[in-house]
Write a structure and sequence with these properties.
about 325 residues, eight-stranded parallel beta sheet, two-stranded antiparallel ribbon, 10 strands, globular
């Protein structure tokens, strides 16, 4: 049995499973492994220091793909005093023949329209129905609805997927994905029942063999339960769900004392510390790093192929056996 949805048809993939963009995780190795396993892998553009570095990463990834398989690129629009050169990153995406882009972040209109003009399929990730409707007006083809459970930036509405997803099904009119806290086949089956056309997993793909991060981080994801995350930076209107550790707790305590004063916490949330933990030390305690509540569902570190096959098989079994058996034949 194969789970065919509007998303699998639109993107030309076997399974309705997308690997979302993740800072310091979304490199060629992971993106290629997910795509080769039948999902859609994403290279995270802004993890690369420059547009030309992104070009190199895309080409590296292409060399790892099976024939006829493609990857996408995540391009997140971040709030910054000195923003990245987004037009250069977008130009490289177009020049390298990428056909699918995941956008996210504030004010995506210009980026979505520019990429759509080049025939690129846009998956826009957002946390609120009103943002999704705006993205659709700008031309987004698919929406990735990111619930309160997600790692990274959940916004400030605090709406979980059990409400957010059926609202999307009633409102959006385009294919959409369940994102945030997703890690297994039960959730894939549930997402389809709630009106979704697939799922987006981030944290779960961090705990795979091919994820190019330190084994210490992967072990923490396996060993920690669903209570092991917390929010920081809410007082500066940039809420982020992160791994609960002494560094994150210090950020929260400092915010409580000095709400809205980013200069009091900036040294604790620097991306360079995040990268050092992921790529070099594996120290889970001395940096602020993103992960979702799905850590409570992670108990192993499989290959991407085994993970995707397991998720799909579990969803198929639930749909064809358990749910079919519940419906009365009278």
């Amino acid at each position: 049995m194969v789970l065919q949805t509007r998303v699998t048809e639109m993107l030309g993939i076997k399974h309705p499973i997308i690997q979302g963009g993740m800072h310091y995780v979304g490199y060629a190795e992971l993106a290629a492994a997910v795509s080769n396993a039948g999902g859609l892998g994403m290279i995270t553009a802004l993890t690369q220091p420059s547009a030309e570095d992104l070009r190199k990463e895309i080409r590296k990834c292409k060399g790892m793909l099976n024939p006829g398989i493609q990857v996408g690129v995540n391009l997140t629009l971040l709030p910054a005093l000195s923003p990245p050169d987004y037009p250069s990153y977008a130009r490289v995406v177009v020049e390298e023949g990428i056909k699918i882009v995941e956008t996210a972040g504030a004010s995506p209109e210009e980026m979505i329209k520019a990429l759509k003009s080049q025939g690129i399929i846009i998956i826009h990730k957002c946390v609120a129905i009103r943002h999704a409707l705006s993205a659709i007006r700008y031309g987004a083809d698919i929406i990735s609805m990111d619930g309160f459970e997600c790692g990274g930036h959940p916004g400030n509405d605090d709406v979980g997927n059990m409400v957010l997803l059926p609202r999307a099904a009633k409102t959006l009119g385009v294919p959409f994905l369940a994102s945030g806290g997703i890690a297994d086949g039960k959730q894939l089956a549930a997402a389809l029942a709630l009106g979704c056309d697939g799922i987006n997993m981030g944290t779960r793909f961090m705990a795979t063999v091919e994820a190019p991060i330190h084994d210490g981080i992967k072990k923490a994801l396996v060993d920690t339960d669903e209570r092991g995350t917390m929010h920081v930076m809410r007082s500066v209107n940039n809420t982020e769900r992160v791994f609960r550790n002494p560094c994150a707790i210090e950020v929260a305590e400092t915010e409580a004392e000095f709400p809205g004063e980013f200069d009091k916490i900036g040294h604790l949330v620097k991306g360079l510390k995040y990268r050092e933990s992921f790529q070099h030390t594996g120290n889970t305690q001395d940096s602020v790093w993103s992960c979702g509540q799905s850590i409570g569902l992670i108990d192993d570190v499989p290959t991407c192929q085994v993970l995707i096959d397991t998720v799909v098989a579990e969803a198929e079994s639930i749909i064809t056996n358990r749910l079919a058996g519940i419906v009365s034949k009278l």
